[in-house]
Structures are given as C-alpha cells and as structure tokens.
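Thread: quick sanity check before group meeting

JM: Hey all, I'm pulling together slides for Thursday and realized we never actually wrote out the predicted structure for the chain we discussed last week. Dropping the sequence here so it's in one place. If anyone has concerns about the input, flag it before I start.
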Amino acid sequence: MSWIDQDPRKLLQRCFIIGLVGILLCIIPLANTVWTIFDPQKLNFLNGFGLLAQLIALSIAVYVLRMRKIAEGPKDKAKSMVIVLGVALVFFMLR
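JM (edit): ok, ran it. Output follows.
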C-alpha cells in the first residue's frame, strides 16, 4: 500500500509536519541575517530545502483536496493548509 493511498487525516498530519519543518528551515537563515550568529553564505542552502519541503506539503494538501468522497472536516483543513502554505511559500520566495 502506497503512503499516498492512506486516510486523509493522516496525510494532512504529514502535510502539517512537513510544512512546519519547511517553514522552520526558511526562518533559520532569516533570523541569522538579523543576529549574524553564523556566516550567512553558509546557511543559504537551507532556504532551498525549506522551499522544497513547503512545496511537497502543498502538493499533499492539494492531493487531499482533490480526493473524492471525503468528509467536509478534512476538506476544510486541506483548504486552510493550502492557504497557509501558499502564503508562506510566496513570503519566503519574495524575501
């Protein structure tokens, strides 16, 4: 059984965790530019991994949104997850 063929609630939980990790990976270099703890050039690669994690989480949320015959609860959570991840993705791309 593929991991994508699971319960929508479990997929949304994974989406939340992956999205949170992606947002945290993008915040670390942003906070480093303010406090300059490490060399900023050495932490720029974390932005790429953070954006990748956010894109993966966004694709999982859209997949759950496109599933057929699911309850309204997971569908509403997927809608809010798409909005939050989309805004975070745009913010960190424009930074």
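AS: nice. Residues 7-94 form one domain. The chain has one domain: 7-94.
JM: adding both to the slides.
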